[in-house]
Amino acid sequence: MPHLTRTDADGIAHIEMTMPERLNALSDGMIAALQDEFDGLMNDRETRVVVLSGAGKGFCAGHNLKEMQAARQAEDAGAAALGDLFDRCATMMKTLQKLPQPVIAQTHGVAVAAGCQLVASCDLAVAADTCRFGVNGVNIGLFCSTPMVALTRNLGRKAAFELLTTGRLIDAAEAKTLGLINRAVPEADLAEETRALALTIASKLPVAVKTGKQAFYEQAQMTTADAYAYTGARMVENMLEAQTNEGITAFLEKRKPDWS
Questions:
Q1: Residue 12 lies in a domain
Q2: Do 183 and 126 form a contact (C-beta atoms < 8 A)?
Q3: CATH number at residue 60
Q4: Of 9, 110, 113, 212, most Cβ neighbours within 10 A?
């Protein structure tokens, strides 16, 4: 059975993790499959938005603990194998934010440990109101240090630290309040609500969204002065795009832009 399935329609690529018997755990194979898919999207000019979901009872249960235990017990190679696993997972997570397309996590069931990290690494998230989230590795003696990186870039520090040190799970309503997700909706409406958000974004000028997404993450790491200098240059770059001229002209002429 493949790790992923992909369907494309209306400029939206819907990638579904399809290992439900393992709660779509981030095994070696799953990480490699996601990385290959994301690498292919880097220069995909037809795709404007990506939706990421999981098949079965939940979105993603985090790393595959059986694989991690096997790597840990490998004679003279445990540290190297585990280090390679976490490095490849981090590369995959970082690739999400390098993609030119916004990525929406569509979550249900559970998104825990590295699965919660995956949600936090996506640009947007829509969750079923029954979904639960957590970085619960501490409950088995394994602090979620790598998931912490994405989590602390979504949540306030004290809220993130509490989740990391208690291992408690939170519901979708609290996840929205804390800033981990954008929307919590009835599970029956999850696919429809996610698609509606994706279609709204897909209707925008792709080069503007691409420029904006890159600038969003770059400026967040800068001082205020450097951020204004950087984003000012991006505004000039965006303003000089031919299709941006069409968008502004259409607005002034009170008509819809023709970006075809």
A1: yes
A2: yes
A3: 3.90.226.10
A4: 113
